[in-house]
Design a protein that fits this description.
The chain is 41% helix and 13% strand. By secondary structure, it is α/β, with parallel strands linked by helices. The chain has two domains: 339 residues, TIM Barrel (Alpha-Beta Barrel); 61 residues, no CATH class. The strands form two sheets. It has an eight-stranded parallel beta barrel with strand order 1-2-3-4-7-8-9-11, surrounded by seven helices. The chain is globular, with a radius of gyration of 21 Å. The mean pLDDT is 93. The structure holds flavin mononucleotide (FMN). Flavin mononucleotide binds next to strand 3 and helix 10.
Length: 423
């Protein structure tokens, strides 16, 4: 590892302790705060810690089960939320999510370029092809993954062309794009000029075969699901290869896994936070979740029995996300885990993210191990458990990364491109 290699750290504007059925004592601190104030405060704390960016995932459906548990989990439009945060912060990057399956490219190009102006060059776009939500956009079912990725590639190319169509406020070279493709017909140019910061960086999520090739062709960073260190080493090496094969630098795609952390003064307390965050997931719900993730029904298996590779459905069995299904298939094939172990996996109880539970030292060692092993270029912190866990992250864990020379102590620039080192 080169001596000056530093982590890129983002913070997801989500808060799982608000999801539980029972209030956690820490919730008193967020009580009475609307979701907007809460997230503004979180973004300001992230900026004080000099993080690269805040990040907001997005789904265009209502998760009724989650809302029943926690009325505070409102699905605010991410770009509007980040535009508000832009006015309350100065340096931190703002990465919004927009689906290429459901939106018109002209609107997305314009909204994100607007966020870029509002934030003075701090916007980023997380490109998702989405796994659900078709019912809110017509009568057709979700398109097949291949179609979604073809559309994503055309959509993204078009957005970049639109961004380039009106290069700058004083630019004389405004040009139509005259795009006529499989999915879109757009004349252009865009009516918002480019910002002197350069175009917004592109993030991407989805790591199936086509997802990876799409990421390698265009993304500056990938939001990765990385439950095990080996998953990350494999993904990062593969993306570096693919980027080079596409004529880009091996470093072009920064691999940033979600790090779902639960921090406390003792391991016991941290595990209690973790347990509490998953307490609402009964065995029945986990069995159902596993069916959705993998198409595998373990409901009839006796406790303690092992789930072996021969029980796995055929690899072309339709699933919601091939990224998540593939991660779990690999884990089962390598470990023949017990039913209980499978039902506790991050792919089943969450979004397949790397879970790190313990003291500041424990989580820190976990991060350093993965960084040194080449599994990641940074991470997107997903705060789990409680406000006090998040406080430990900002007040102790990040400062220790700085002390070890693995993270910046001050911003060197004021745009997201600068924070990510994109030339
Ligand atoms: C880590 C991760 C985060 C994702 N976040 C979102 C999201 O916020 N919104 C969304 O609509 N889809 C999200 N997706 C879904 C992907 O965009 C994609 O549709 C899905 O993974 C299927 O692609 P695949 O076949 O490459 O796995 C996410 C996927 C992954 C792996």
């Amino acid at each position: 590892m080169s001596a000056d290699r530093k982590l890129h750290i983002g913070l997801s504007l989500t808060a799982t302790w608000l999801k539980g059925p029972r209030p956690h004592p820490d919730e008193a601190r967020s009580e009475g705060m609307g979701p907007v104030e809460f997230y503004v405060g979180l973004a300001q704390a992230a900026e004080r810690a000099k993080l690269d960016f805040v990040f907001r995932p997005d789904y265009l459906v209502m998760n009724q089960a989650m809302v029943a548990h926690s009325p505070t989990q409102v699905g605010l439009d991410p770009t509007m939320l980040l535009a508000t945060i832009a006015r309350e912060t100065e340096k931190i990057g703002l990465v919004t999510t927009a689906s290429t399956t459901f939106n018109p490219p002209y609107v997305v190009a314009r909204q994100i370029q607007s966020l870029h102006w509002i934030s003075k060059g701090r916007a980023g776009w997380n490109i998702v092809t989405s796994i659900e939500g078709a019912e809110n956009f017509g009568n057709e079912p979700m398109p097949a993954p291949e179609v979604r990725y073809r559309k994503a590639a055309e959509f993204t190319g078009l957005v970049r062309q639109l961004w380039a169509s009106y290069p700058g406020v004083s630019s004389a070279s405004v040009q139509a794009v005259d795009h006529a493709g499989e999915f879109f017909h757009v004349k252009g140019p865009l009516n918002v000029p480019g910002h002197e910061a350069g175009p917004p960086p592109l993030f991407q999520a989805g790591a199936s075969e086509i997802g990876r090739s799409f990421a390698a062709s265009v993304a500056d960073a990938t939001f990765a699901a990385m439950p095990e260190i080996g998953d990350g080493i494999e993904l990062r090496a593969d993306l570096r290869n693919r980027a080079e094969r596409q004529g880009r630098s091996a470093n072009a795609v920064r691999v940033l896994p979600g790090l779902y952390f639960f921090l406390a003064r003792t391991r016991e307390e941290a595990w209690k936070l973790h347990e509490r965050a998953h307490a609402h997931l009964t065995r029945e719900r986990r069995v159902e979740a596993l069916k959705t993730v993998l198409g595998l029904d373990v409901g009839a298996l006796t406790p303690g029995s092992r789930v072996t590779a021969d029980l796995l459905p055929a690899s072309d069995h339709p699933v919601r996300s091939r990224t998540h299904a593939e991660l779990l298939r690999r884990f089962i094939a390598a470990n023949s885990p017990t039913v209980e172990e499978v039902l506790a996996r991050p792919e089943v109880v969450g979004s397949a993210h790397w879970v790190s539970v313990g003291t500041v030292d424990d989580v820190l060692n976990d991060i350093v191990e993965r960084f040194e092993a080449g599994a990641l270029d940074g991470f997107i912190a997903l705060p789990g458990g409680s406000v006090s866990s998040m406080d430990l992250f900002f007040e102790e864990l990040v400062p220790e990364l700085v002390r070890r020379g693995l993270f910046r102590s001050e911003y060197e620039g004021s745009t997201l491109r600068e924070h990510l080192g994109i030339r």
